Amino acid sequence: LMAPAVRPARKSAAAPGRPDLSAPASDLEAKIAALRRQIEENSEYVGMNFAAEARAIHSGDAPERAIYGEAKPDEARAMIEEGLAVAPLPFLPARKVN
Questions:
Q1: Which pTM does this prediction carry?
Q2: Which helix (H) or strand (E) holds 36?
Q3: How far does Cα 28 stand from its chain's mean position?
Q4: Domain residue limits, the chain
Q5: Given its phi and psi angles, is residue 43 left (phi above 0), alpha (psi -120 to 50 degrees) or beta?
Q6: Rounded Cα gap, residues 93 and 47, in angstroms
């Protein structure tokens, strides 16, 4: 096995510092993080049962409370057509985030 003899640069450029990835990169990102905290603290996560649970609350079969979860696009469209007050959230559920 052979490898070429590579010399380092005479003046090594200063390596840029690593950005702090835990800090919000912008004001918008900070506001979305605050919205997420507020929703998670004041709502119940119902996961993929969101459409069924929202319909049950709307019809009075389940106690009224704030919920959030996941719905397929066709389920979301159907809920809007049925008159349920639903809106997409600007973040992924915690279980789907690395």
A1: 0.70
A2: helix 27-42
A3: 14
A4: 43-88
A5: beta
A6: 9
